[in-house]
Design goal:
The protein is mainly beta and 110 residues long. 10% of the residues lie in helices and 35% in strands. It has 2 helices and 10 strands, in the order ααββββββββββ. It has helices at residues 7-10, 13-19, and strands spanning 24-26, 31-35, 41-45, 51-52, 55-56, 71-73, 76-78, 84-89, 92-97, 102-105. A hairpin with a 2-residue loop joins strand 8 (84-89) and strand 9 (92-97). The longest helix has 7 residues, at 13-19. It is flat and about 55 Å long.
């Protein structure tokens, strides 16, 4: 697990590190739990699923298994079954055929 931050949002590195909480380790059930910087409760165990605020990250709101996104960031959300990735960020766009592994637009140079 990694906790990410940036200077613009989180201030100097020393401040960021000082605000991180020490995870709680349970040697009986081999689990870790901690609060994220946004106060989200996270739990990870060798014997169970990854939990976010007490709910399995692999279960949908209806309690049924869900397939997590392949990619999620400010430019795009790519679902596990998507064949085309369409990204847009700061006025730029990019479309990639994930099956063929080829850029669709804008066209590559040459």
């Amino acid at each position: 697990m990694a906790i990410l931050g940036d200077a613009k949002s989180d201030g100097p590195f020393e401040k960021f590190v000082a605000e991180l909480e020490e995870p709680l380790y349970n040697s009986v059930d081999l689990s870790l739990s901690w609060l994220s910087l946004s106060s989200t409760s996270l739990s990870l165990s060798w014997k169970g699923p990854f939990l976010v605020d007490g709910v399995s990250a692999d279960l949908g709101r209806d309690g049924l298994p869900s397939t997590p996104d392949r990619l999620r960031n400010p430019a795009t959300i790519v679902n596990a079954t998507d064949k085309i990735m369409r990204a847009a960020f700061r006025g730029e766009t990019l479309d990639i055929d994930l099956i063929v592994g080829r850029r669709l637009s804008p066209k590559s140079g040459g």
